[in-house]
Amino acid sequence: MKATRKEKLIKLMAEEFTAIELNLYLDTHPQDKRALELYNETVERLYALLEDYERHYGPISNFGLSPSSYPWQWIEEPWPWEINFCDREDNEQCGYMKKS
Amino acid sequence: MWIYEKKLEYPAKICTTNPKLAKVIITQYGGPDGELAASLRYLTQRYSMPTGRSKAVLNDIGTEELAHLEIVATLVYNLTKDASIREIKAAGMDGYYADHDKALYFVNGDGVPWTAAYIQSKGDPIADMNENLAAEQKARATYEYLIQLSDDPGVTETLRWLRQREIVHYQRFGETLEHLYDYYSKDHYYFMGSETC
Ligand SMILES: [Fe+2]
User: Fold this and answer.
1) Cβ-based contacts of B61 with chain A (< 8 Å)
2) B74 vs A86: CB contact, 8 Å cut-off?
3) What is the pTM of this model?
4) Under an 8 A CB cutoff, do A61 and B5 touch?
5) Complete domains list, chain B, with CATH
């Protein structure tokens, strides 16, 4: 997998992780306006990253959530467990959690 | 309904072949405090939760645990995929190999298969939430033991991330327990433990 694709994927993963974390927090703090604001901002950024990634590399989700070009792209490899992040730089250990 | 996302929740880094490490990590796939047990426990407890909030917490954490199950599988798969028969034998994985080759199967580090007896769904939300708090602590402890056993820095990094998630889940379940105490009126449940007393 090319470096640019992997970089975009890692960005997308980081953004969605932010959304997951805020989602769980909001489940138990539904009246935290600041967290809700952050969640909605994250959703917007995540949508933009998803749209860009899928346009270049095909759908992240199936079952009607994203379109496919011809031929049906969902079956394209690699599948997630086949993507090697071994070349991910060590200093990204924290960078993954940070906003870039 | 669930939708699959064709990506991991965390970019797991596996740079070596290490069946010996895979053999112990697999307990978080199919062991007593592993991710399968976690996910199925929370998802099945959803139905008997009394409030929108408690249903949401179990639904969402149960779903995230499936993503963790996939990360653990990714570790085991990549640590073993290029292992030779000699390495498999040296790692003590020959018994596993005889039954599964290098396929993923739900066992603990000693090959004991997963069982629903690992989990409980009691129908009593207070009892269930206490079980979940314990489950998260047991999973955290398991990740700490695995970190001690790990001789691969990349894998350790992923194990540390998974451990962190257990701490966050524990926190959210703790808040949910408090919320349930409020819902039922705290003292009654805290001291009696049963609605019929
Ligand atoms: Fe957890």
Assistant:
1) 24
2) no
3) 0.93
4) yes
5) 19-187 (1.20.1260.10)
Specify burial of residue B66 (Cβ count, 10 A radius: 0-12, 13-18, 19+): middle
Binning pLDDT at 50, 70 and 90, where does residue A8 land?
Answer: very high
In A, which residues are within 8 Å of B172 by CB distance?
A: 24-25, 27-28
Cβ contact, residue pair B64, A88, below 8 Å: no
Asked if residue B107 lies in contact with residue B96, where contact means CB atoms within 8 angstroms, the answer is yes
Please report where in the chains the tokens 């407890």 appear, as a residue: B45
Ligand 1 centroid to Cα of residue A73, in Å, is 33
CB B65 within 8 A of CB B38: yes
The conformation of residue A78, written as its DSSP 8-state character, comes to P
Strand residue runs (E) in B48-149: none
Shortest Cα distance, chain B CAs vs residue A51, angstroms = 14
Residues in contact with A8: Cβ distance below 8 Å, sequence separation at least 6, in sequence order: A49, A52, A53, A56, A57
- Report mean pLDDT in 10-residue bins for chain B, 197 residues: 98 96 98 98 98 98 98 98 98 97 98 98 97 98 98 97 98 97 72 50
Element (H, E) at A57: helix A33-57
CA distance A7 to B181: 45
Q: What Rg value do the Cα atoms of chain B yield, rounded?
A: 18
pLDDT for B196 equals 52
Check if A47 contacts B (Cβ < 8 Å).
no
- Euclidean distance between CA atoms B29 and B71, whole angstroms: 9
Contacts of B51 in chain A (CB under 8 A): none
- Residue of chain A minimizing CA distance to B177: A28
What CA–CA distance (Å, rounded) separates B143 from B161? 9
Please tell me the total number of residues recorded for chain A in this structure: 100
Taking the C-alpha atoms of residue A63 and residue A14, their distance in angstroms, rounded to an integer, is 23
Q: How many helices and strands (H and E) does chain A possess?
A: 3, 0
